[in-house]
Specification:
It contains 6 helices and 11 strands. By secondary structure, the protein is α+β, with helices and mostly antiparallel strands. A hairpin with a 2-residue loop joins strand 6 and strand 7. It is elongated and about 75 Å long.
Length: about 220
Amino acid sequence: MIQVTIAHSSNGLNFLQRQLDDKNLKKASTRALNKAVAKGNTLYRRMISEHYNIKPTHIRSSIILKKATYNKAETSISGNIRPLSLSRFNPQFVNGRSVISIRSVRNRETGRRTLQQTARNASRNEQAGGGVSIEIKKGSRKVIPYAFLTKSQANTGVEKQIFARGKYAGGKFQKAKERFPITAMKTTSVFGILTHDPIQKKIETESKETLQREFERQIYLLTRR
């Protein structure tokens, strides 16, 4: 959650605040808070899109935005804690001397999705490494050598999953021997991305600056009426 505070930047602003009744002071605070949280929300979505391979529709549906009201001067931005499937991050797997990519494509006429498969020649390093590679952060592909990729025969229009033998414990995947059952692999959540220090600090800084500017602007506007 992003927390913002209103600071008094000058004696002149303090004087103007004293000219307002409680109703208009609440109005100024509420408008400023909502302007700040809207700015933070826009920046948050933009930064995720710039750095992570998450579709805008998934970002929008995973963000929880709480606006301020005249009766409750609180606002926050938070992200869904549900982990995202690794299958969302452009998976590729080695099949012999080929690297296979699978992606979901929507048919414009029917609106239904089907899985399309493309192939290219694998390099020696890729053939030796095997497994599945994913691109969570743009421009940075990571290989999971013990993972494998499957697609559902019952619903080829939607599902493609990355599996491995093992289980999750304490938020981390523990690889197991071949006799163990397979588990669909997950990665970070939108909430996890929000709590990364560089992203959180930038959003907090921008939101607080917007809040202060808008609060001062609303004070001046309301005192001129």
